[in-house]
Amino acid sequence: MSSGVQPSQECLEKFQELKTGKKLSYVIYGLSDDKRSIIVLKTSEDKDFDKFIAELPEKECRWAVYDFEFELPGGEGTRNKLTFVMWSPDDANVRNKMVFASSKDALRRRLEGIHIEIQATEYSEITKEAILDKALRR
Amino acid sequence: MVYNGDEVSALVVDFGSATTRAGYAGEDCPRVVTPSFYGYTTEEAPASTSSAANGNGNGEGHTNGEDVSMEPAPEGAESSVKKGTGRRFYVGDDGVGVWRPGMEVDNFMLDGVVNDAEPAAALLHHILRDRLCVDPTEHPLMLTEPAWNTPKARQALTEMVFEGEKMPALYFGSSGVLSAFAAGKPTALVLDVGYANSSAVPVVDGYALRAGTMRQPLGSQLLVSQLHHHFTNPSRDRTFPLSLLPRQLIAKRVPTAENGVQPKPLLRDDRAPHTTASWKLWAQNTVVEGWKEASTEVVNYKGFDFQTANDLPKVLYEFPDGYTQQFSDERYRFSEALFDPKNYFDQSFEPPATLRATPNSDHSHSLKDLVSLSQLVHDSIMSCDVDVRAALLQNIVVVGNTSLTRGLTERLDVELAALMPSQKIKIHSPTIPFERKYASWVGGSVLASLGTFHQLWVTKDEYEEHGMSIVHQRCK
Asked: Bias category Low complexity: which stretches (chain B) (predicted)?
């Protein structure tokens, strides 16, 4: 079941840019004001994880793609894995949560090459450690 | 069906085992919450002028002139004579809750599914016309359905909506998915503890996984029947059975001086001979339900025992007949069946026959093989693909009216941790009570109000052209 809300062309273009250009560090997605489509709210080249987390508001849902860079254990070098984040804080209202949850698949399906997926309701669920844990498990 | 551009003013109806919820899409809360139980009288073909003396048995007491004049039972909007089985239905708030001579009680839901279309249609009609006061031909309707809904029930509902009410469009929303979405989760394990059933439905990326869906007839209906037996028999600290008389059969209550003393209320003797057994049982269960809602808790640590339960807080409760008592272990003992059905579900007497409808299968436990809520969650998750288990365990969404029993989510947490010690488990349940009670209605309300959702509606024209296949195709 889905809401019928679709991602705009820009959503996919920015994702491609992040994936192939190796310049962008993350893309934050949200809903258009008329709630009919998914739009890009922000892109950034800043690799600081905390800055990325700060883009996730306390009382509103977001989707995001973050280019997660990490060290392989034993000094085998660094790797990058694209991480998709579904952010739906408990304090967001039902309407907001409902639209984001029911539209997620329409966006996620169009983004090829995602390795890690995180569904978080509080900041403690989206830490570097939690993502690293998933990255290494694969 | 088009108002203000693409603003579709849709309606949402959520048929539940105890209550049916209905209202306008886009609103926070259902406007109508009304019993799924209904009353009916059977009009026998020849004019029923003589009153048969079988009113208090399970036969049909007749509504003769005398009874009617002495009992001005509300009529009109709530009653409707239906062709077919010749039953006259009394639905809605003034349906089953109003005493009528010879009125029997039944419920159109069975095992969480709409089982008897005729009274369900009468209730839908009443809701649309009398409660929401709308012209059904102008509003699309979203109906919720359980993950185990049957094609037969789906078809009956579809006919009810398109052919009966001539509504312009319909969509079936899956209850579990709607509840997960309303909690902000495309992926979640939804534990719904309701009236007739408790069910665990794994939802992954917005789709309910049939493979992992588990249900069993362990909900408040079973607890109420156990309590009914307990109250209508003498117990350790009570030498007499409780009457559990509802206010409808009491003329005057004589306050009892002390706690634990048998009350002597003044009864409505005029009503007694015309009260059916099914109405009486329903009314008594409603009295028990009232006690349960006010008094029951689940101990929030592992394992109940009488010793410690006696030390837990007591509550004073007064029944409609005036009986008053400080209740202690009863507050915890019966709800313990939710987590330990092997020891706390007493099978020595007959549980409600309707609960036997749930079979023993890969996706359900029958009354004989109930498992704890934690085991149900565990089994459901374990029958899903190994890739999604971790995500489900960290996103357990608990909904349903019975889940509001104090201590339930805390206890579930304790039990799950004991069952799966090495796993990260996280229970999320909506903090606002009505969002938990009416989770699937609330989810349906938001979804059906979205402008983009209109492409998913099955329209009356499409149904007339393609029949049920278009419904099955679109409502997944």
From this structure: 44-55
Domain A6-137 has CATH 3.40.50.2300: no
Chain A's closest residue to B7, CA to CA, is A34
Which pTM was predicted?
A: 0.91
> Which residue, among B177, B185, B456, would best test binding to A if mutated, counting the most A CBs under 10 Å from its CB?
B185
Residue A95: closest CA among chain B residues belongs to which residue?
Answer: B446
Specify the domain boundaries for CATH 3.90.640.10 within chain B: 220-350
Q: Which CATH architecture has domain B11-42+86-178+440-474?
A: 2-Layer Sandwich (3.30)
Identify the band that residue B340 occupies on the pLDDT scale cut at 50, 70 and 90: very high
Other beta carbons within 10 Å of B315: 16
Cα-Cα end-to-end distance for chain B: 24
ipTM of the complex: 0.94
The confidence score (pLDDT) of residue B431 equals 85
CB-based contact, B177 to chain A, within 8 Å: yes
Query: What is the b/e burial string over A79-112, where b = at least 16 CB atoms within 10 angstroms of the residue's CB?
Result: eebbbbbbbbbeebebbbbbbbbbbbbbbbeebe
Cβ <8 Å between A98 and B182: yes
Q: How confident is the model at residue B85 (pLDDT cuts 50, 70, 90)?
A: low
Give residues 106 to 135 of A whose Cβ lies within 8 Å of B: 108, 119, 121, 125
Contact A8/B at CB under 8 A: no
- What does the pLDDT look like over B387-402, one tens digit per residue? 999 999 999 999 999 9
* Contact residues on chain A for B456, CB-CB shorter than 8 A: 2, 4
Q: What is the dihedral of CA B252, B255, B256, B258, to 10 degrees?
A: 160
Cα of B181 to nearest chain A Cα, Å: 5
Give per-residue pLDDT as tens, A49-87: 999 999 999 999 999 999 999 988 888 889 999 999 999
Q: Is the pLDDT of residue B63 over 60?
A: no
Measure CA of the first residue to CA of the last residue in chain A; give whole Å: 29
pLDDT the model gives residue B59: 35
Q: Do B184 and A104 touch (CB under 8 A)?
A: no
For A:47-76, CB contacts with B below 8 A are 61
CA dist B384 and B394 (Å) reads 14
Measured between beta carbons, which residues in chain B are less than 8 angstroms from residue A86? 186
What is the C-alpha separation between B465 and B194, in angstroms, rounded?
37
- Beta carbons of B447 and A3 less than 8 Å apart: yes
CATH of domain B220-350: 3.90.640.10
DSSP A72: P
Kindly list the residues from chain A whose CB atom is less than 8 angstroms away from the CB atom of residue B184: 61, 88-90, 92, 96-98, 100-101, 121
Every domain of chain B with CATH number 3.30.420.40 lies at: 11-42+86-178+440-474
- Residue B135's alpha-carbon distances to B12, B20, B34, B117, B431, in angstroms, are 14, 20, 20, 21, 35
